[in-house]
Amino acid sequence: MIPAPYLLYLGHSDDEIGIKTSRGLATFRAGDCVGELRHDDCPLSLGLPRLTIEQAVASGARTLVLGIANAGGVLGEALIRDALAAIAAGLHVASGLHSRLRDEPRLARAAAEAGVTLFDVRDPPADLPVGNGLRRAGLRLLTVGTDCSVGKMYATLALRDAMRARGLSADFRATGQTGILIAGEGLPLDAVIADFLSGAIETLSPARHDGGWDLIEGQGSLFHPSFAGVSTGLLHGAQPDALVLCHDPARVGMRGLPHCPLPDLAECLDANLRVARLTNPAVRAVGIALNTVKLDDAAARALCAATGERLGLPCTDPYRFGGDPIVDWILQCFAPSTPATTASR
User: Fold this and answer.
1) Are strands 213-216 and 284-290 parallel, antiparallel or unpaired?
2) To pair with 195 at 20 to 30 A between CA atoms, which of 90, 179, 317, 341?
3) Are 134 and 178 in contact (CB under 8 A)?
């Protein structure tokens, strides 16, 4: 486990989506976050106290979390300088970037001299199997999306909480850096060698015999030219019984590829169902999760209602309005094999 409390890094970021890891921790692990580290040219904030490294240490911080995501997940010079300053002040450093902290000689040397630890979150185990597609026991829900970074993790966590509130056994299975930092465990799917993608998810969500659910965090989108491969491997390895389609209605083009339009929701859902049927022919859609953060309350509720009516599925913003409409549908669809149990903790 990465030692808490955390100082969340925003650095020089000016991309709201690019700070999603820090924002996720501030949202779901608020009690473990003492403040944010941002430079004068950063217009963004998590609503936490803005602290220097020295102030954060005085406030009890133990780890600087480089909670940003950039193209390619690289360690730039600015990040390295700030990480070195944190190490010199006695902080551990955690990162979910593709570039490994331990592979940067200056950081490795400084950490060894200071007696602190570098945590590379995007670091899959070395012994992952190749997927076999064999049907395994248990119930699984997978969130999928019209694009990357549309709220799949938020929806998955909100649905888990809604299911637990109804007395169901439900567990979150993290597949990305932010989810892993929040849950304290998981598997960074986009860092896995392609041949082992489906096997990695089979490992993350093994056979389950308690009648409960694994809620698996989705990644990317089948329609995103850059990341569809990860989404495909996830769909095959998860063998989902249920799919929830996530969408940001404010998005006008694929993230990072503005020349690529977003797919129609019905078309996207159908494509995901067709791919998922390779390993679970019985998979079914159980809901639509909209990320309505940029809409006022009335507009958000109206859009959820209209979308649900158009697609014939329950539609909500699970984080904002709760996941009960989708959970109601799940209970109806899977009632014979979904007994109420004491929630997993």
Assistant:
1) unpaired
2) 179
3) no
The structure tokens listed for 134 are 């064999």
Measured at the CA of 69, the angle between CA 34 and CA 100, to 5 degrees, comes to 90
Structural fold of domain 6-120: Rossmann fold (3.40.50)
Confidence of residue 17 (pLDDT cuts 50, 70, 90): confident
- Which residue in this structure is represented by tokens 């992952």? 128
- What does the mean pLDDT of the chain come to? 94
Q: Is 314 helix (H, G, I), strand (E, B) or coil?
A: coil
- Predicted confidence at residue 96, as pLDDT, reads 87
Domain layout of the chain by residue ranges: 6-120, 139-337
* pTM score of the predicted model: 0.91
Q: At what angle do helices 265-276 and 228-238 cross, to 10 degrees?
A: 50
Phi, psi at 143, each rounded to 5° = -90, 135
Residue with tokens 């409409």: 325
Q: CB within 8 A of 92, min separation 6: which ones?
A: 2, 3, 62, 63, 64, 116, 117, 118, 119
The answer to whether 219 and 143 have CB atoms below 8 angstroms apart is no
- Model pLDDT for residues 96-116, shown as the tens digit of each residue: 888 999 999 999 999 999 999
Name the CATH topology of 139-337: Rossmann fold (3.40.50)
The C-alpha atoms of residue 267 and residue 275 are separated, in whole angstroms, by 13
Q: Shortest CA distance to 121 belongs to which of 36, 75, 179? A: 179
